[in-house]
Amino acid sequence: MRTEIENLGEFGLIDHLTKNNEIRNAGTILSVGDDAAVIDQFGRQSVITTDMLVEGIHFDLMYTPLKHLGYKSVVVNLSDICAMMATPTHITISLALSNKVSVEALEEFYEGVYAACDKYGVDLIGGDTTSTKSGLVISITAIGEVAPDKFVTRSGAGDKDLICVTGDLGAAYLGLQLLEREKKIFLENPSVQPDLQQQAYLVGRILKPEPRMDIIEWMNEHAIFPTSMIDISDGLSSEVLHLCTKSDKGCVLYEEKLPLHPDTKNIAMQFGVSATTCALSGGEDYELLFTVKHEDYDKVARNSNISIIGYMTTIAEGKHLITTGGNKHQLTAQGWNAFA
Amino acid sequence: MRTEIENLGEFGLIDHLTKNNEIRNAGTILSVGDDAAVIDQFGRQSVITTDMLVEGIHFDLMYTPLKHLGYKSVVVNLSDICAMMATPTHITISLALSNKVSVEALEEFYEGVYAACDKYGVDLIGGDTTSTKSGLVISITAIGEVAPDKFVTRSGAGDKDLICVTGDLGAAYLGLQLLEREKKIFLENPSVQPDLQQQAYLVGRILKPEPRMDIIEWMNEHAIFPTSMIDISDGLSSEVLHLCTKSDKGCVLYEEKLPLHPDTKNIAMQFGVSATTCALSGGEDYELLFTVKHEDYDKVARNSNISIIGYMTTIAEGKHLITTGGNKHQLTAQGWNAFA
């Protein structure tokens, strides 16, 4: 018998393979199934996450400068640590390289890695470098720390909790579409120089995301403790549905509340796609999606980097998006699927 | 300017890329350059290591059962934790898979992963699963714990310290040659069934290595604290030279003291290669190589799983192998190089 992986999808596959996973160490507080794992080490807690990036699947070296790739590879992991409300401290990097990659190219990649380490106070403490006959594969593990039991999972959202998101959404997806369009033009006519200067914001969002450490620090300063949290890598709807599933809740989102950058609206119109769809399904925003108790409304509303986009409901009420026109749509995950 | 990676080699490349690596966190005790890194977490210490295995470079799915591959992928990381004299506690696994891999095949792989976790009391706490257009890539990170400052590095060997090795050497390399020979025969004539039953020991050594946790426990029980330690993945000479370089020492090894299994001697003869060469350069033994002070001779000599194969010297005396015939040879690393 042969079951294809795409029949299960990435999350189904992970659930399937880890359903019999046993926990043997008393120090294992949170295992597979969140943004990161939590282990108790001698009374304090460490947070661990890992991500793998594959050439041709997650990045295209034709329009991804290696320095940006190094920076982003670190950042996507730091973002997972943030999503636990922890502070990143250490990373390891493993690379599988073909002999097409020169030492100078790798130096550029590491420049980006060190720039991210420097900006976020993280130490690179190890790794592995090996060869491959095909494209570049990058695997990074990040470790962070959090005060005992002060980490935030995906599973604590309560009925009527407010759903909040940082920054703006959909821009990275449109940045990627712009890069893909320029690549196509270039391949058809190499004498045409790409002109992306007008679109620095959108292109910057896909090539150089930042983890929202600033928001974690702000929450700590203002004693805001989210009931659940996740970072947005696959797209808002996919992530909201994760919070609903893990917390056994439903949700209502308001289209008019979704934070969109003016450039996102302009370029979505130019591409003839709905900016709302970009926000819901685009992915790679690396913003934080979280829920807070209703009484935290005033605190959260005061921060201009945070948008309140809806609220959690009971599971029986379902998962919905209310459009600007007042229509009610079932929320479905159309996020990016590596196996699609 | 373009520099090819093979001009630097794996270790040269890592040195080159990490020469400007800054340490920002006071808790970073040991960084890049040993079997694992050590970080101080709230007064106790954690050990972290990571390894990447690439299809076609590190394993051949034609003769590697997936369950064994899962088991071995975990073990090679636990072996690095052992080599720090630490106890492994947690792992994460990331996989890049092509759509050639079925869910059932992955289940087999995870059976092996869980078998290793079970045997060594380790928890699988996270990972990432993604697709690739080419072969399977496995990246594992292992975490362990060690009492404060009780970890053993590669750099503490002193002049006249005894050089010790666990188990026997060269068997995994010959096991691999047997598998390669059977593969060739099979490809030429698929009706010929491989007969490896007589060679269960050698084939077992390449397909199902074990980390020497038993030796670490024995050392702890008998209060033996090595001055330096490394695990043997690339071959004895390569690893001895690492200890010499990191400890600023020379060494003398005795050919007649190298531990060889009877099957290793037999099959080496059959293949027309020197069993000593297999031991020195074969690799994948996952035995421990360590140095102890001269006064620990009696304690170490009593353990039949440990062979004393030579001693450290001053750096000026060089690095040598004394053959059974009494000749003195310069020791050179001919270990396995992923970029060769």
List keywords for this structure.
homodimer; 60s Ribosomal Protein L30, Chain: A; Phosphoribosyl-aminoimidazole Synthetase, Chain A, domain 2; 7-stranded mixed β-sheet; 6-stranded mixed β-sheet; 10 helices; 25% strand; globular
Briefly note the structural class of the backbone of chain A.
alpha+beta
CATH architecture of the largest domain in chain A: Alpha-Beta Complex
Provide a count of the helices of chain A: 10
**At the third CATH level, what is the topology name of the largest domain in chain A?**
Phosphoribosyl-aminoimidazole Synthetase, Chain A, domain 2
Shape of chain A: globular
Helix-strand topology string of chain A: HEEEHEHEEEHHHEHEHHEHEEE
Number of domains of chain A: 2
Supply the CATH class of the largest domain in chain A.
Answer: Alpha Beta
| Oligomeric state of the chains present here | homodimer
